[in-house]
Design brief:
The complex is a heterodimer of chains A (498) and B (244).
Chain A: E1 8-10, E2 14-17, E3 23-24, H1 26-38, E4 42-50, E5 59-67, E6 72-78, E7 84-86, H2 96-106, E8 109-111, E9 122-123, E10 126-127, E11 140-145, E12 157-163, E13 166-173, H3 193-198, H4 205-220, H5 226-254, H6 258-279, E14 288-289, E15 292-293, H7 299-325, H8 327-333, H9 341-347, H10 351-355, H11 363-366, H12 387-410, E16 429-436, E17 441-448, E18 454-460, H13 462-474, H14 482-489, H15 494-497
Parallel strand pairs in A: 3-6, 7-8
Antiparallel strand pairs in A: 1-6, 2-16, 4-5, 5-6, 9-10, 11-12, 12-13, 14-15, 16-17, 17-18
Helix pairs in contact in A: 4-5, 5-6, 5-12, 5-14, 6-7, 7-12, 12-14, 13-14
Chain B: E1 19-21, E2 42-43, E3 51-53, H1 62-66, E4 72-74, E5 89-90, H2 106-112, E6 116-122, H3 128-134, E7 148-150, E8 159-163, H4 171-180, E9 186-190, H5 191-196, E10 218-220, H6 227-237
Parallel strand pairs in B: 6-7, 6-8, 8-9, 9-10
Antiparallel strand pairs in B: 1-4, 2-3, 3-5
The chains are: A alpha+beta (498), B alpha/beta (244).
C-alpha cells in the first residue's frame, strides 16, 4: 500500500480504533476503493455496519483491502446512509457478490450493478432465488441440478444453459445452508460462538477458529503464547493435508482412476487421525481457543505424530505418483475447466484456485501473522488455470506442508502455559484477521460496541470469492466435465451460506 | 479391518468417548457445569441431579473439567446410537449412561438387514458429519461389505441419513426427498445438529434438527460422531451387533 494511500493501514491480525478508520461519502469510498483495487490490491471484505440494531437504520459501508505486495491491509468506510450509492462492481467485478450481499442484508442499492439478486436469503422453505439468467434459442436447453446431490455432499443448486454438450452459462444458486451465523454474533461473543466459528465450514475448523481467535486477541490487546501459535500452525497444515489428499482421491475417482482414489480415501483418514491425535477430534474441534490452544504436543505425542506423518506423506506421494504417471488420467484433467490469469484476478479468486491460475496469493506468505511471522511456506504455483493445475497445486502443497511440518516438529518452541486471557475486548475497535485455510483466505472482521461486545462481525470464507471461478471454468466446457471441474475447486456451501 | 468380528479400532486418547453422569456424586444445588456448556446440553431441575442431553452435546468435555466432584466423566466408549430421543438424556438413577439402540423388528430386519440403501440429505451440515459418513465407504471401513450403500436417488433408497440442523431453506427439499422414498422407510439423524440443532439450536434460520419434520428411527450423537460411532449405530440398527 503506497504511503500516500487515503485508507487506514494495518497489519494482519491487528486492531485499530473505529474512529481512526477514515470516513468518506459513499460515492467517494467507491471511487477510492476502485482506485486502490486498480493498482492491484484485493477486496477482502465489503460490508455494512448499521448504526443501530433497528431495521432501516442508516448503514456505513466498510472496505477491507489487501495489498499483497506490501504485506499490508487497508480499511476505509463511508458515512452512514440509506438508499442508493454508485456500484463498485462495474469497475471491479470482484465486488459483485459483496454488493449483492450488502443490498440483501441492509437494503442499500448499488446503482449500476449488472445482476442484483439475493445471495443466501431464505423465503419460506427454500432460498429466495430470483429469476435465473436464461439463454434463448431453439437449440438451447437448461439443466437443473440440486439442491440435494447424488452423493454425500452439501446442498446447492446449479443451473446450466447448454447448447448440446456445451455449457454457455452456469449459474450457481446457494443459500440452502444458511444457519444465521452472522446475525447471531452482535452482542457476543456468546457461549455458542466458538462452536459456531468451528463449524462455519466444518472441514476448515482450524482456519476459521484461528481467525476468530486472532480477532479476539487483537481486540483484547494480547497475543497468544508462542507455543500456542506454533500448535495452530501445525494444526492448520494437518487440515490442509487431509483436505488436499481427499480432493486428489475424489478427482481420481471422477476420472475412474481407482488406485489413487482408493489410496487417498484411506490416507485422508490418516491425516484426520493426526489432528485427532493432537486434540481428540478428527476435525480439530476444541483445539483452538481465543488466547491460545487447549492441547499441547508433549514430546512422546510429538514423536508419534512425526512417525505417523512420515508414513502418511510417503503414502500420499506414492498415490499421487500413480496418477501423475497415468497419461489417461492426465489427459482428462489437462485443458479442462480453464480460468485465465486475467479472469482470476478480475474475479478476485483466492487460495489454491488463484495459485493454479498463476497468481501469487497466500496469506501465510503475504500477510504473515502468528507463527507464520517466523516460519513461512513457499507459494506453490501452476500457471494453466485448468483442472490439472488445481490438481498440481494440491500435490505441490502437500509436499510443502509436509516439509514445513517436519521442520517445525523438529524444533518445537519451549513449553509454556498455552492460554492468555482474551476475555475483555476493547470498545469501539475494528480488528481484521486473515488465515490461509486449505481453500484459501479466511477473513474475519469484528467491530466492538461501547461495551466491548461485538457490534458487527463479518466472515468471508474463501468460497465466497471462488464460486465465481467455478462458473467461469464451465464457460464453453462440456457439461459432462462439470463433476471434475466442481471437485477441482471443492468449495464450501455452508461457508458461503453462513 | 477386523471389526466387527474382531476388536474395534481404538479411539484417539483425547477423544474420551461417551459421557456418564454419576447422580450420587452430583451435589445438591451445584450448578458449576451449566454455564460452561456451549450448547445448553446441561440443565438442572430442583432436587434432581443434572440432566445431560447427549443429543445436544458436542463432546467438548468442558463440563467434565468444570464438575468439582467428578459427577460427569468420559467413558471412552464409542457406542452412542439410540432409537429413542429420550435415551440420550442422562442423569437420573438408572439413566447414568446412554441406552443403546435396539435392532429393527423382525419384518424390517428381513427387508433391510442384508441390504440397506440410503439417500443422504445434508441440511445445514458443516461437511464434518458428511465427511465422516463418506469415510465409511473407503477401503479401510468398507461399508458395502455390510450391504449398506448410499444411492443417488430417493427412489432407490430405503431411507434417509440426515445431517445438519435442517435449515429453513432445506425444508422443502427434505420433505420432497422424504416423500420420494418408498415405504417402508427409515430416517437416521447423524450429529448434534441433526438431532437437536447443535450449536445452532435456537436460531430462527434452522429447525431444531430433523425430528420436527420427519420421524427419526436412529440418533447418532457427536460433533461429528467418530466414523466408528456411526458404523456402530448402523450395524446396531440392523441387528448385526447383538450382545456387543
Amino acid at each position: 500500500m503506497s504511503a500516500d494511500s487515503p485508507f487506514a493501514l494495518l497489519a494482519n491480525a491487528t486492531a485499530l480504533p473505529w474512529a481512526d478508520v477514515p470516513v468518506w461519502a459513499p460515492e467517494d469510498l467507491v471511487r477510492l476503493t476502485a482506485a486502490e483495487l486498480a493498482r492491484g490490491t484485493r477486496l477482502c471484505a465489503w460490508f455494512g455496519v448499521p448504526t443501530t440494531g433497528e431495521p432501516g437504520a442508516p448503514v456505513s459501508l466498510v472496505a477491507v483491502l489487501a495489498d499483497d505486495a506490501d504485506n499490508t491491509l487497508a480499511v476505509g468506510r463511508s458515512t452512514s446512509f440509506t438508499g442508493h450509492y454508485p456500484a463498485l462492481t462495474p469497475a471491479q467485478p470482484q465486488a459483485h457478490l459483496f454488493e449483492r450481499e450488502v443490498w440483501e442484508q441492509h437494503g442499500l442499492t448499488p446503482t449500476g450493478h449488472p445482476w442484483l439478486k439475493p445471495v443466501r436469503q431464505t423465503a419460506g422453505q427454500a432460498p429466495a432465488n430470483a429469476e435465473f439468467f436464461r439463454v434463448e434459442g431453439p437449440e438451447i436447453h437448461e439443466v437443473a441440478v440440486g439442491p440435494v446431490h447424488a452423493g454425500i455432499i452439501e446442498p446447492g443448486h446449479f443451473r446450466f444453459q447448454c447448447a448440446g454438450e456445451e455449457v454457455l452459462h452456469l449459474e450457481i444458486a446457494l443459500g440452502y445452508q444458511h444457519r444465521g451465523i452472522e446475525t447471531a454474533l452482535p452482542g457476543g461473543p456468546h457461549r455458542a460462538t466458538l462452536a459456531q466459528m468451528e463449524t462455519v465450514a466444518g472441514d476448515t475448523t482450524i482456519a476459521h477458529a484461528t481467525a476468530h481467535a486472532l480477532v479476539r486477541e487483537a481486540l483484547a490487546g494480547i497475543e497468544a503464547p508462542l507455543r500456542s501459535q506454533w500448535l495452530r500452525a501445525i494444526a492448520l497444515e494437518l487440515e490442509r493435508l487431509a483436505n488436499h489428499t481427499g480432493d486428489l482421491g475424489a478427482l481420481a475417482g471422477d476420472v475412474a482412476f481407482l488406485p489413487t482414489q482408493s489410496a487417498c480415501g484411506k490416507i485422508r483418514g490418516d491425516f484426520l487421525n493426526l489432528t485427532a491425535l493432537l486434540c481428540g477430534n478428527r476435525f480439530g474441534r476444541g483445539m483452538v481457543l481465543p488466547g491460545g490452544t487447549r492441547h499441547d504436543l508433549e514430546p512422546e505425542r510429538l514423536e508419534t505424530l512425526l512417525a505417523r506423518l512420515t508414513t502418511a506423506l510417503a503414502d500420499v506421494a506414492q498415490a499421487n505418483a500413480w496418477m501423475d504417471a497415468a497419461t489417461s488420467a492426465r489427459a482428462r484433467f489437462e485443458g479442462v475447466g480453464k480460468v485465465s490469469t486475467a479472469q482470476a484476478a478480475e474475479a478476485g479468486l483466492v487460495g489454491l484456485a488463484a495459485r493454479a491460475c498463476g497468481l501469487v496469493r497466500d496469506v501465510r506468505y503475504d500477510h504473515p501473522a502468528g507463527w507464520h511471522r517466523f516460519a513461512q511456506l513457499p507459494v506453490a504455483l501452476w500457471p494453466d488455470g485448468d483442472v490439472f493445475a488445481r490438481v498440481r497445486v494440491r500435490a505441490l502443497e502437500i509436499q510443502r506442508s509436509g516439509e514445513f511440518l517436519r521442520e517445525q516438529l523438529g524444533a518445537p518452541p519451549d513449553p509454556e502455559n498455552l492460554l492468555a486471557d482474551a476475555s475483555t475486548l476493547a470498545p469501539e475497535m475494528l480488528a481484521v484477521a486473515l488465515v490461509e485455510g486449505w481453500r484459501g483466505e479466511v477473513c474475519h472482521v469484528a467491530l466492538t460496541d461501547p461495551a466491548g461486545r461485538f457490534h458487527r462481525y463479518k466472515i468471508i470464507d474463501p468460497s465466497f470469492h471462488n464460486w465465481t471461478g467455478l462458473a467461469l471454468a464451465l464457460r464453453g466446457a462440456a457439461i459432462s466435465d462439470f463433476p471434475i471441474c466442481n471437485k477441482s475447486f471443492n468449495l464450501s456451501y455452508c461457508g458461503f451460506d453462513l | 479391518m477386523a471389526y466387527p468380528n474382531g476388536p474395534a479400532p481404538a479411539l484417539p486418547d483425547r477423544h474420551g468417548g461417551s459421557l456418564r453422569v454419576n447422580p450420587e456424586k452430583c451435589v445438591e444445588g451445584c450448578t458449576e457445569c451449566l454455564p460452561v456448556c456451549p450448547t445448553v446440553a446441561l440443565t438442572r431441575a430442583p432436587a434432581q441431579p443434572v440432566a445431560l442431553d447427549l443429543g445436544r452435546c458436542i463432546f467438548c468435555a468442558a463440563c467434565v473439567q468444570a464438575c468439582p466432584t467428578g459427577a460427569i466423566v468420559q467413558t471412552g466408549d464409542h457406542r452412542m446410537a439410540v432409537r429413542r430421543r429420550e435415551d440420550l438424556v442422562l442423569g437420573n438413577e438408572g439413566r447414568e449412561e446412554i441406552r443403546l439402540a435396539a435392532a429393527l423388528d423382525e419384518r424390517l430386519r428381513r427387508l433391510f438387514g442384508r441390504s440397506l440403501r440410503l439417500r443422504q440429505v445434508s441440511a445445514g451440515g458443516c461437511n464434518a458429519c458428511e465427511s465422516d459418513v463418506n469415510v465409511l465407504g473407503t477401503i479401510g471401513w468398507d461399508l458395502s461389505r455390510f450391504g449398506i450403500q448410499f444411492v443417488a436417488s430417493p427412489r432407490h433408497a430405503d431411507g434417509l441419513l440426515i445431517t445438519g440442523p435442517v435449515t429453513r431453506a432445506m425444508e422443502l427439499a427434505l420433505k420432497k426427498t422424504w416423500d420420494a422414498v418408498p415405504e417402508p422407510k427409515l430416517v437416521i439423524a447423524v450429529g448434534a445438529c441433526a438431532i437437536a440443532g447443535g450449536p445452532f439450536a435456537g436460531h430462527p434460520e434452522v429447525n431444531q434438527g430433523a425430528s420436527p419434520l420427519v420421524p427419526v428411527d436412529l440418533f447418532i450423537p457427536g460433533c461429528p460422531p467418530h466414523p466408528l460411532t456411526i458404523l456402530d449405530g448402523l450395524l446396531r440398527l440392523l441387528g448385526r451387533l447383538e450382545g456387543r
